[in-house]
Request: fold
Amino acid sequence: MADRGYSTLTKLGLGALTFNSALAIYNSWGDAGSVAFVLGADAALVLLFLCLREFERGGGRGRDAKVKAAVSVDVSLRFSSSSSSGSMFASRVAPLMPPAVAAVVWLLAVATAAGGFWAFFLN
Reply:
């Protein structure tokens, strides 16, 4: 019997994310790119959380084709959302850094995406 409710820690974490995002949107209200970044990053985090929850709730058993298909979609969504989060972070941070540090930021974003691809699909 799986518990369908969220734990108190989960609720506190999502509440902190919501509060922090609301403050970030408020502080950058005139800049549409910053607001879009905050909303996109939050959407990626929530999607990642929901996919992980679905996987932990029963996707790990792999008894039938539907569960296997859901796990495959879950892994693909996790990879794409984590890669997009890394590239969104790099696109916002790299312009603020000196050129050498910006190159390292982008290199780390690419390395994270490549490592995720290797871990999810090749390993």
Observations:
- The mean pLDDT is 78.
- The helical segments are 8-27, 32-59, 65-93, 99-122.
